[in-house]
Amino acid sequence: QVQLVESGGGLVQAGGSLRLSCAASGRTFSSYTMGWFRQAPGKEREFVAASIWSGGMTYYTDSVKGRFTISRDNAKNTVYLQMNSLKPEDTAVYSCAATPGRLGYNKRTTYDYWGQGTQVTVSS
């Protein structure tokens, strides 16, 4: 199994930046697709970004494209989400997720493993 632990959340003013980290266990980390999702109060969990297991391909939801960057350090078994130019609407609990697959990267049902989440609050 894969264990995921997020960190790096906090309170930031609009326009600021945060970097979230997701530390993963598991021998097959480098082959897993890793995703970031977020859930704001009263809203559905939303896909944010994914790093596909093969080729280092990355994908983003339109609302964060150009502002967020997903990256991974396989040697450290860690996935990052660099968030720049943060907006109040980015406020949510951010969770990382992992799956050995590569299809349906933007669907929550694709992912087999989830972290507990880290709170990101962006003030105006």
Structural commentary:
This protein is mostly beta strands. It is 0% helix and 48% strand. The protein is built from no helices and 11 strands. It has strands at residues 4-7, 10-13, 18-24, 33-39, 46-51, 58-60, 68-73, 78-83, 92-99, 113-114, 118-123. The strands form 2 sheets. Strands 2, 4, 5, 6, 9, 10 and 11 form a 7-stranded mixed β-sheet that branches. A 4-stranded antiparallel β-sheet has the order 1-3-8-7, with no helix packed on it. β4 (33-39) and β5 (46-51) form a beta hairpin. It is globular and about 40 Å long. The mean pLDDT is 93.
What oligomeric state best describes the polypeptide chains here?
single chain
Question: Helicity level, as a percent range?
Answer: under 10%
Radius of gyration: 13 Å
Instruction: Please tally the helical runs, counting DSSP H or I stretches of 4 or more residues.
Output: 0
Helix/strand order: EEEEEEEEEEE
- What is the CA-CA span between the terminal residues? 40 Å
Describe the main β-sheet briefly: 7 strands, mixed
Q: Which geometry do the CA atoms define? A: globular
Overall SS class: mainly beta
- Mean pLDDT, nearest integer? 93
| Total count of strands | 11
Strand content: over 45%
Enumerate the spans where pLDDT stays under 50 for 5 or more consecutive residues.
none
